[in-house]
Amino acid sequence: xxxxxxxxxxxxxxxxxxxxxxxxxxxxxxxxxxxxxxxxxxxxxxxxxxxxxxxxxxxxxxxxxxxxxxxxxxxxxxxxxxxxxxxxxxxxxxxxxxxxxxxxxxxxxxxxxxxxxxxxxxxxxxxxxxxxxxxxxxxxxxxxxxxxxxxxxxxxxxxxxxxxxxxxxxxxxxxxxxxxxxxxxxxxxxxxxxxxxxxxxxxxxxxxxxxxxxxxxxxxxxxxxxxxxxxxxxxxxxxxxxxxxxxxxxxxxxxxxxxxxxxxxxxxxxxxxxxxxxxxxxxxxxxxxxxxxxxxxxxxxxxxxxxxxxxxxxxxxxxxxxxxxxxxxxxxxxxxxxxxxxxxxxxxxxxxxxxxxxxxxxxxxxxxxxxxxxxxxxxxxxxxxxxxxxxxxxxxxxxxxxxxxxxxxxxxxxxxxxxxx
Length: 421
What we know:
Layout: H1 2-16, H2 21-27, H3 32-46, H4 48-51, E1 58-61, H5 68-81, E2 85-90, H6 100-109, H7 120-128, H8 134-145, H9 150-161, H10 166-177, H11 183-192, H12 206-223, E3 229-234, H13 244-257, E4 269-275, H14 279-285, H15 289-298, H16 303-321, E5 323-325, H17 331-349, H18 366-382
Parallel strand pairs: 1-4, 1-5, 2-3, 3-4
């Protein structure tokens, strides 16, 4: 029964065009170039904290339906099997790439680890993060010299004291997840433990605090004995629909997460993004982003805007130069996938699927093959003698600007955590 349930979950996901763990486990992944580079970057990630360097991020490219999401799901599965914590963030109207706090919260909310079900961070904090372990001592030692806001060190101190205070534990874990914390309340907690003078709790802007959260979380996961944090970013092409200033900010955040500048590196993090292969020509070139974004931000005349421009330019260069293309499926790939899919379908519905043609068709995406095969089998289960004709309509990418995708976060916006209330 479990095999049938798993098979049905896989078929339903493939029918919807959104591969899940069951589908990826059953079908595997043929993007060997991507898997090879990813394996090398995971090795770099294991040693990145010791070397104080961040592995350079990866950009996986394919057209709509070309297997980007499938590959990311497979990479997630592989990384979790090798003792990495994994987050998968889909860029959307709710999670804009230019907003680092929304990105962070989405990454923590989607956090997955091997053999952990449900709220991963809470499970890690309660069952895997040992305050008596040398890894936790290393985290506290790092926090002393990491030049992060002292509220991070304050929360690990309080967590160490709160072994039986579940209310305090919940507050601290909530902050680690990205929730705001009232500084006055945090000071009160520190006074109760006699540590109020140890942590000044400096004021900090919302964006800078969000950027620091990524560094802290990477180290927290290491303290919980994970070998690193893999962040998968799907549908990056959506940033092409932002207006020019928000595109610039989105590029800058991408550069930070991908470790494109050593000064802002996040050791312990490997970011992998999926994007369409025509993004460079259709957006960066067609919309003149290199000139427009650099001019718009540098004309403001402040250091933060200059930094945003420089980071944005490095991200645009990476998109133009470093794409790992997912190749079109070969005839051997199609035959192999059809054979595997037939077995899954037979298990899911206790039937014998009709033998279908797996002939290669130029320009057709793997998703289109898979969905047409499943649709044919679905119809044949109702009418065995019916010979359906499947028509495919290609979905094209739309890079038209849409302000509804944006909710501007102004530079220098104060954090609600900065107030001493």
